[in-house]
Every structure is written in C-alpha cells, then in structure tokens.
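JOB MANIFEST
job_type = single_chain_structure
chain_count = 1
residues = 257
[input]
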Amino acid sequence: MASQKLLVKDVIKKADVLLEVVDARFPEETRNSEIEKEMLRTKKPFIIVLNKCDLVPKDKLEKAKSRMAKAAPAVFVSSKERFGTTMLRHKILEVANIRDRDILVGCIGYPNTGKSSVINGVAGRGKASTSAISGHTKGVQLVNAGSRIVFLDTPGVIPFDEHDEYIQGLLGIKDSTHLKDQIGVALKIIEKLVEEQKDVLESFYNISATDGNSYDILEIIGMQSNFLKKKGQVDETRTAIRIINDWQKGLLLAEKP
C-alpha cells in the first residue's frame, strides 16, 4: 500500500494535468478526498472523469456533475460506447494552458474504474494495455495521444483502506466469496438501491420495500428467494451472496431512458 501511495504522489508531481477517474454509477464512493487535496495543494489543474456513463441515467449524471463542479470540471466518458473522449481531449488542452511542449497527463483512480480504458479512448484503441484484472498495469507507460497530449499510464491506483470493503464489493474488485462481511456489503447495496432506484430493487426481486429498512428488505428477499434454514429462518448469508452477485453482474442497474 505504501508503494502505491508513493506512485500516486509521483504521478501528481510529474504531471501537468491530472485526471481522477471515477465510476459514474457511484461517483462519490470512488472519489478520494485525500488525493484531491494533494492535487489542489500542488495547484495543478485536474479533471474528474465520470467513466462508464452509459450505465447511468442522464438525470443522475447531471446531478453528479453539478456536485463535482465545486472541486473540478467533470467530463462524462463511456469507453465502451466511445463517448466523451473528444470532449475530454479538448478539456485537457483547455486547462493545461501549455503551448511550447507536450502536456503530461496523469491518470489516477481506484482499481476497476477504467483508467487505461479512458486513455485508450482518447489516444486510440490499444495504445495502453488494458485488462479486467485489477492492477493489470505493471509499470509506467508513456502513451502518445496526439495533439501534444502524452499520458502517464501507471499502476498508481489509489489503494484501499481496510474499511473500504463496501467499495470493493460495489466495484466488483472482490466477489462475494472473497468478502469478509458479505451481509454488511449486501446491506450497503440495498441502502444504495433504496435511495437511488427503489423501483428496480422491488421489480427485480418482486418485493415491496415500503419501510426502506435494509435489514428487513434483506430478510424479505431471502423469503422471496426461499433461502431458508431448517427451522424456517432466512439464510442471511446465502441471501447476501445472491444480492452481491446480482449487483456485480449488472442485473440491478436501471434501464437508460
């Protein structure tokens, strides 16, 4: 973890412009206030890139962008749909304000937010090595994206603290078999769904979540799924594993308008 933090700080030191790549489905959870303070302290321009925007309804994206604007300009990107990369390129050139040399751009973010995919979207497919496996990028790579933009593609992912298991569950970095507190992660997922897309939760599990209590909802889902122990009690762990798996497979996402 210490070496990862040093790599992140090294990227911040070397870059002219910094990109913080966050997951558009849960932007607040995948931002890092400590890293943002470090970037602001250096007085270097940074842009928040809301990646995977194709998975989020437009109204939610606009609300997230409005909140982000207090810290830095935000750009929507979908590496999968090849959307927003031209706008990101223009925004980099705009905030850099460098005329006489190439612009070094550092890309920072949690694992699985899609940093290398964002770089590929701007530079052209295949120029930065990508993989679905967290931590795939092993060493610093310079990626020429044209228009005087050169990316520092690094393994400088923001390391997780011990208490960030919820985020790791949300991002699919740890599957249900590797999470220590499966029930706790499932309850957090339920809370998020109740707050943001309760109708999806109710429709998918064919339940009514009227009171919004996450533990009660987990019990209802367990009953509806017939996940019962011998004495008729709900098997909470089995229910939690189903909820986590459904979430990580993308089955609990709202349809785009």
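[summary]
The chain has two domains: 2-153, 165-248.
The mean pLDDT is 85.
exit_status = 0
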